[in-house]
Amino acid sequence: xxxxxxxxxxxxxxxxxxxxxxxxxxxxxxxxxxxxxxxxxxxxxxxxxxxxxxxxxxxxxxxxxxxxxxxxxxxxxxxxxxxxxxxxxxxxxxxxxxxxxxxxxxxxxxxxxxxxxxxxxxxxxxxxxxxxxxxxxxxxxxxxxxxxxxxxxxxxxxxxxxxxxxxxxxxxxxxxxxxxxxxxxxxxxxxxxxxxxxxxxxxxxxxxxxxxxxxxxxxxxxx
Length: 223
Description:
With 223 residues, the protein is an alpha+beta fold. The protein has one domain (9-212): 2-Layer Sandwich (Muramoyl-pentapeptide Carboxypeptidase, domain 2), CATH 3.30.1380.10. Helices cover 31% and strands 12% of the residues. It has seven helices and seven strands. Strands 2-4-5-7-6 form a five-stranded mixed β-sheet, with helices on both faces. Strands 1-3 form a two-stranded antiparallel ribbon. A hairpin with a 6-residue loop joins strand 6 (192-193) and strand 7 (200-202). The model has no long low-confidence stretch (mean pLDDT 95).
């Protein structure tokens, strides 16, 4: 099945009706665990933040997980500065991997794993992580050890992109089950997964609206 990318025109055309729900910081609540600062020190004040409803839904997801497993937040809100940095880093990697592609194709390939800050025509984008609607999450055991998902979220920059895909089949049946457990638990609370990244879920952004066939998104950019 073809994957609709996060910067696909079908997604970007969806209107946003900002509901002005506040961000909350997971650091101020004991319910959810979170990992160390991801990507860059520039994220240290932001990565544990998300919209209030997203936090509440994650708490319900965690309560429904089997085996005493818990969620661990890898990253929530992300500034446009960090988003632009990550896109450029990924773009340079893609350029080396696919020297035969033209600039438009390289841009498109980069959007498989990183949402752009600007489109090819120069117009501004609204990356999901910049809305407070998107979260990157992993599973941990009661002892705080990572559940085997075939890779950790932080390894996305170094593994082949196929391994990041939620439904990737060239992994053990056990790892496939673990990914499906997370997927099912998140979907049960209304989240949608970005299929190129098993760890990325959102509620209330344009991608969510596209998948759920909602008329509009409820969360827009938070500068």
